[in-house]
Inverse folding.
């Protein structure tokens, strides 16, 4: 995944692209761990708050913490599903 780039400042993140990325992540997570998974629900909450223009800092941190709690093999499968979904959307 050398094409992914981490940013140190949220000022470098395009809010529209960020919302789309989280929507793709939510879909991929639901596909791998299920729609009723706690992780999927937390990510969907972040997507909804972002779409409604609400501050997403605390929700985003909870989202990252929930995602990080998944085993590595599930995170890898989610990444594959998200990349496939993103390339289909492009």
């Amino acid at each position: 995944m050398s094409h992914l780039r981490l940013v140190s400042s949220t000022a470098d993140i395009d809010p529209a692209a960020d919302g789309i990325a989280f929507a793709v992540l939510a879909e991929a997570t639901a596909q791998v761990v299920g729609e009723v998974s706690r992780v999927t629900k937390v990510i969907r909450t972040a997507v909804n708050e972002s779409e409604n223009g609400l501050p997403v800092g605390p929700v985003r941190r909870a989202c990252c913490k929930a995602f990080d709690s998944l085993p590595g093999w599930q995170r890898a499968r989610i990444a594959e599903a998200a990349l496939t979904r993103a390339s289909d959307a492009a």
About this structure: Residues 15-33 form the longest helix (19 residues). The mean pLDDT is 79. The helical segments are 15-33, 38-51, 57-68, 72-89. The chain has four helices and no strands.
